[in-house]
Amino acid sequence: MITLKGKDIYLRALEPEDLAFVHKVENNEAIWQLSNTQTPFSKYIIKQYIENAHKDVYEVKQLRLVIANYNNDALGMIDIFDFDVKNSRAGIGILIEDEKSRGKGYGAQALNLLVNYCFTHLRLHQLYCNITEDNLASIKLFEKQGFKQVGLKKDWNFINNSYKNEYLFQLINN
């Protein structure tokens, strides 16, 4: 699919071979705050998730894709969640797993590809994301793609024994 191919990366469906990678990401406590995760996931549960990842986005209301380079190394994941057909919108989440791979433009390419996919193939009217106030890299990434800050949720997330504000960003397809 040409739509999901960029200069340095492409987006692909989850494969059974991604079990170890997804298990590593989902059980990394350092990033649990991004997904509001509270407990670890077993390999069994993740295997079941991957086995059901083929289901249509219209049925399960979400889509998770792997961000891979052209050596087929998994660099991260990008998600569509809360897919709302009636209101023609969805949330987006993104993670470049290895810190050494961050800041190289992979996230920007992946986000651009997914936004184009959502607007052209899924015909969505709008996309949104939620970003904590101190996640400056994500704020910069989404703003660069054209997302606008449209709201502030005060004391929204309890992280490391304190409450943090969370911004709501939105991109409307004109």
From TrEMBL:
It comes from the Bacteria. The keyword Ion transport does not apply. Keywords: Transferase. Pfam families: Acetyltransf_3 (PF13302). Signal peptide: none annotated. The keyword Glycoprotein does not apply. Residues 9-170 form the N-acetyltransferase domain. GO terms for molecular function: acyltransferase activity, transferring groups other than amino-acyl groups. This is GNAT family N-acetyltransferase. It comes from Seonamhaeicola algicola.
